[in-house]
């Protein structure tokens, strides 16, 4: 891509300079007056490539970056004196109305991209209508202006989806931009590939399809954010030139505000192809856009229609209800798993509601989790609110010798908060050692340990804590329980974990479905003195094995395990599997040496002295 020498040159000189660098075929006499620009205002975690791993109910847990990214987009448009149409997700209007107001106050048009990021195939006719209304109300409430335009939040409209245009017309929308001609799509309706009017009863809806380069009846989309990032710049310029030669209508370009943010967190759980689609060339997007912004004069869709005499909705915006219905967006507790948590446990006294708020310590081991801490903080805020009626949570964060910015960020986020303690290991000692450090620091008899990456949703503590009934020493989360769930975890890794569980069932007394979960509730007195020798994740299994050999009672609770979203797992699979086999051999030897009841045996006599 070419670079500009800024110096003291004004915008007009810069536009001429860049125009001279684009091949003459890419310019048309009417180009400065005829191009349209739309900007999609959504956050990085709301996009289609990540839909499979990030459900809508988790949006509020992520570090939001839409505020800063919107400012980047506004600054870029201001630099070139451009007013655009912003297609905005309605959820953002309710959660961050100041962002939408800021866009509108700068003279840009606000249009709808639905309330949640859902495609047309996920909605029936009435659900689509409800989503339209909810989004429009949220946007008009935030911006104080009428909303006339729409673009489908996820995917595009195909020939079988044109009923959605009827609903848009019935709901009073003036225009839509949700059709993307690709390959043979709309080959039998070529008029749908160009700007056209959709008629429904006595209403008319203007349709602005995404432009496409047609070769031999096959259409290839051009001029959109992902296409601009993925295709070679020279090829895209040639495609734009072809469009201009063959069309008397304006070229419609678009980009997403998150495409100006190369530093956005990477969601490693998404499939490789989707990660390429989401993250490739983000660092080049600013340079890719500038030549087009320099060369052509853009406007928004609403302005284009108004200059052609199309009537757009005007007048004051009256709120249709008092406030946003937040219930659907709240993260809250995941849907309850079917059936009783543990067979035969419903009569245990610990399951009955307890008077007053019970003090509970939650230990969070952290190692190189700088990327995860903002997500963790938002999640724990929701957990504290959800459990506040029954439990007084005390949080202990243990930095296990991190070598990134975990400790500094932990202090900024959690330092100084009441009932929050921050501890630090001088060197990495492993997750089990970090959990035991937190347990020893706790001043409550009930101590929970959770994963910093929230692969087990901490809201599930609501089901685990009551199972620590009288006589129970440990409650462990069990995704491999018949009533448990495993979501998006690779099949090979799932197979290894279940294979380990079968081996542990051969060695230990208590027959569980899961032995290696870090998501647990402990009776402090039963585990605080465990002589754990194994390092890292092995120590978590050893804690349970030691307690089993000592005659402790262990209960498992069905739980949902999800794939890690942010950062990378610290587990070394090969090394960990070999370590488990060695641990199983030691546990088996300890059990069969003793043969018979071991409840009264001192812990140190079972596996020897604790190392370190």
Can you tell me about this structure?
The protein is of the alpha/beta class and 612 residues long. The protein has 2 domains: 35-308, TIM Barrel (Alpha-Beta Barrel), CATH 3.20.20.370; 356-607, Spore Coat Polysaccharide Biosynthesis Protein SpsA, Chain A (Alpha-Beta Complex). 35% of the residues lie in helices and 15% in strands. The strands form 5 sheets. Strands 14-13-12-15-18-16-19 form a 7-stranded mixed sheet, with helices on both faces. Strands 1, 2, 3, 10 and 11 form a 5-stranded parallel sheet that branches. It has a 4-stranded mixed sheet with strand order 4-5-7-6, covered by helices on one side. Helix 14 (406-414) links the parallel strand 13 and strand 14. Helix 6 (125-143) crosses helix 7 and helix 19 (536-549) runs parallel beside helix 20 (573-594). It is elongated. The protein starts with 10 loop residues before the first helix and ends in a 5-residue tail after the last helix. Mean pLDDT is 83; it is low at 1-32, 320-354 and 596-612.
């Amino acid at each position: 891509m070419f670079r500009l020498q800024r110096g003291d040159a004004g915008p007009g000189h810069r536009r001429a300079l860049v125009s001279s660098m684009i091949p003459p075929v890419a310019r048309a006499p009417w180009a400065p007056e005829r191009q349209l620009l739309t900007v999609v205002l959504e956050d990085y975690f709301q996009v289609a490539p990540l839909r499979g791993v990030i459900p809508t109910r988790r949006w509020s847990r992520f570090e939001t970056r839409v505020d800063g990214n919107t400012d980047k987009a506004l600054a870029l448009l201001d630099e070139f004196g451009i007013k655009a149409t912003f297609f905005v997700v309605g959820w953002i209007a309710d959660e961050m109305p100041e962002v939408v107001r800021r866009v509108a106050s700068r003279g840009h048009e606000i249009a709808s991209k639905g309330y949640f990021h859902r495609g047309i195939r996920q909605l029936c006719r009435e659900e689509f209508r409800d989503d339209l209304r909810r989004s429009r109300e949220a946007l008009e409430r935030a911006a104080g202006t009428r909303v006339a335009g729409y673009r489908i939040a996820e995917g595009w409209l195909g020939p079988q989806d044109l009923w959605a245009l009827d609903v848009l017309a019935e709901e009073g929308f003036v225009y839509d931009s949700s059709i993307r001609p690709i390959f043979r799509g709309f080959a039998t309706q070529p008029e749908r590939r160009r700007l056209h009017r959709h008629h429904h009863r006595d209403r008319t809806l203007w349709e602005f399809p995404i432009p496409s380069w047609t070769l031999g009846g096959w259409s290839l989309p051009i001029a959109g954010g992902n296409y601009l990032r993925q295709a070679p710049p020279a090829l895209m310029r040639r495609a734009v030139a072809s469009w201009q030669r063959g069309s008397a209508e304006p070229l419609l370009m678009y980009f997403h505000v998150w495409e100006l943010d190369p530093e956005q967190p990477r969601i490693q759980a998404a499939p490789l192809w989707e990660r390429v689609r989401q993250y490739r060339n983000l660092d080049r997007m600013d340079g890719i856009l500038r030549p087009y912004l320099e060369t052509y004069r853009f406007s928004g869709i609403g302005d284009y229609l108004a200059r052609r005499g199309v009537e757009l909705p005007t007048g004051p915006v009256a709120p249709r209800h008092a406030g946003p219905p937040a219930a659907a967006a709240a993260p809250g507790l995941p849907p309850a798993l079917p059936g009783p948590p543990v067979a035969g446990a419903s009569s245990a006294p610990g399951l009955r509601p307890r008077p007053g708020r019970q003090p509970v310590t939650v230990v969070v081991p952290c190692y190189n989790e700088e990327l995860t801490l903002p997500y963790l903080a938002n999640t724990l805020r929701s957990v504290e609110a959800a459990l506040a009626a029954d439990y007084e949570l005390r949080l202990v964060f243990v930095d296990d010798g991190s070598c990134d910015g975990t400790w500094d960020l932990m202090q900024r986020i959690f330092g100084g908060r009441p009932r929050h303690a921050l501890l630090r290991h001088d060197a990495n000692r492993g997750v089990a050692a970090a959990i035991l450090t937190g347990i020893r620091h706790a001043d409550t008899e009930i101590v929970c340990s959770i994963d910093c990456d929230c692969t087990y949703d901490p809201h599930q503590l609501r089901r685990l804590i009551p199972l620590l009934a009288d006589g129970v020493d440990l409650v462990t989360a069990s995704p491999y329980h018949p009533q448990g769930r495993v979501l998006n975890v690779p099949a090979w890794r799932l197979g290894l974990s279940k294979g380990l569980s079968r081996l542990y069932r051969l060695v230990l007394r208590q027959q569980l479905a899961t032995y290696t979960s870090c998501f647990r509730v402990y009776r402090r007195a039963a585990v605080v003195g465990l002589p754990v020798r194994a390092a890292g994740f092995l120590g978590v299994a050893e804690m349970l094995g030691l307690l089993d050999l000592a005659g402790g009672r262990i209960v498992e609770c069905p739980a949902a395990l999800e794939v890690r979203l942010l950062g990378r797992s610290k587990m070394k699979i090969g090394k960990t599997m070999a370590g488990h086999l060695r641990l199983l051999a030691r546990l088996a030897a300890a059990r069969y040496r003793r043969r018979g009841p071991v409840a009264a045996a001192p812990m140190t006599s079972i596996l020897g002295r604790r190392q370190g």
